[in-house]
Every structure is written in C-alpha cells, then in structure tokens.
Write a structure and sequence with these properties.
The protein has about 240 residues and is α/β, with parallel strands linked by helices. It is built from eight helices and eight strands.
Length: about 240
C-alpha cells in the first residue's frame, strides 16, 4: 500500500526508513531528517507493524509503503530501493526508524556520493571521536565480520553491520533487483566489492535504542553469525568463479 504524499524539493535524494513497530520514534526521526536534509524526499517502509507506525508517518506528509506482514529488514530496504528506482532517484539513504542514527550526520554521509568519491558510503560509529556503548557479544560480532571481509576483500570496514548508509543510482538499480533478506548489511558489502563498486566509511554518531525492543535474541544472534558468514563466503566464491571465466 502506498501513501502518495511527497516531501522535499530535490528529486535526486530519497531517505528510506525501514520501520517495524516504531510509532514512538518515527515522527521525531522524520522531523529531524526534514531539518538536516530538507532537500530530500522520505519514504517510510512500514514492515507489517502492529502499532500506528504507518499512521504517524502518514501524518508527517511522507511517502508510506506498507507490507501486509513483517518480512524483515532486507525486504523493507529492497521495497524502498524499488520505489527509488521507479521514481527516478539518484541517491538512496537508509536511516533506521528507531532513532539510533543522528540525522545531523546525513550531510556527512551523502557528500562522498554526491561528489562521486564512492558508490556506497557507510556511517561508522567507530571512526569518530565519540564513544558508542554496546554489548561485548555485539562488538565481537562486528569485529568478526570486519576481519572476515578484510580477508576476502582486502578492505577494512570498521562497522560492517551499520545500517546508516548511502548509495548511488548504480547500486539502487542493482539492489532493487536482489537484496539479502536476513541481516543484510555485511553481505551487501561483499556484493559491492564483488562487482567492483567503491566503498567509503565516514564517522557518525549513534545512540542506544530508546524505544521498542531489539528483535535479535541470543539464539538469533548465533543464527545471524552462521548465516551471514556462509552468505559472505559464497559471494566470495562467486567472485572468484567470475574472475576465472
């Protein structure tokens, strides 16, 4: 379901906000994006929320796309990218709906894409001077994926699980057709390397979740590690097969 409202005056930039049960934070996230990147349009992908996420977003005058049931973060982002391609946007920015990303960093995030320095820009919570407090298991998982990607690609990404990122039209077109479904962030980086696109990290600030509940339990975290590791290795194998043919 699509809400046909539109925000922003520049048709080149679309901010995609995947959201699941984020009625308590989504309004403020939208307001802060308007203040910090007023030229951008915004689409909220309501991923089967049971609360009033879609209603709150709709009252803010942004595009709202709704899944009939919860399909997961990968499907929500892909829906946003399909919308970006269909509407002709040149840059897509992903921002979480839970308020953990600082919209004040949007200009820092999008500038390397606007200036042609990178195809994908990742906002890293570990590149700046600020301190991001997280659990030890989560930090270990992030470091593990950084090491795995470095071994396979030769490029060090300090924050491979960051969902705060911007991409250009070439990647919008690629990932609108195929996007990893479960816990997609590290797998996307492997795909970007595989197809020879340029990546760059920029320092950003992040804050702990203040509303809602994380969907990642201990057992889901273990599943996440195993599944994404397998997917990344398979992407690497496909790259080598392409190079040998």
């Amino acid at each position: 379901m699509e809400n046909s409202k539109r925000t922003g005056s520049d048709h080149s930039i679309l901010v995609i906000i995947p959201a699941f049960n984020e009625q308590a934070s989504i309004g403020q996230v939208i307001d802060e994006i308007h203040v910090n990147l007023p030229q951008a349009s915004i689409v909220v992908v309501n991923d089967g929320s049971k609360d009033k996420t879609a209603e709150v977003a709709g009252r803010k005058g942004v595009f709202v796309l709704s899944h009939l049931r919860n399909l997961g973060i990968g499907s929500a982002v892909q829906t946003g990218l399909m919308f970006a391609r269909r509407k002709g946007y040149e840059i897509a920015i992903q921002v979480d709906g839970d308020g953990q990303h600082y919209p004040g960093d949007l200009k820092t995030l999008v500038t390397p894409v606007l200036e042609g320095e990178a195809d994908l820009v990742i906002g890293s919570r570990f590149r700046g001077a600020g301190v991001f407090f997280s659990t030890l298991p989560r930090r270990i998982g992030i470091f593990f994926f950084s090491c795995l990607l470095y071994v396979l690609t030769g490029q060090w990404i300090s924050d491979p699980t960051s969902g705060f990122r911007a991409m250009n039209r070439s990647l919008i077109d690629r990932f609108a057709d195929r996007y990893p479904m479960d816990y997609p962030e590290p797998e996307v980086l492997m795909s970007v390397c595989r197809f020879g696109h340029r990546m760059k990290e920029v320092p950003v600030s992040m804050k702990p979740r203040t509303t809602g509940v994380s969907s990642i339990s201990f057992f889901r975290a273990v599943y996440y590690m195993l599944k994404v590791t397998y997917a990344i290795i398979m992407e690497s194998v496909r790259e080598r097969e392409l190079q040998s043919t």
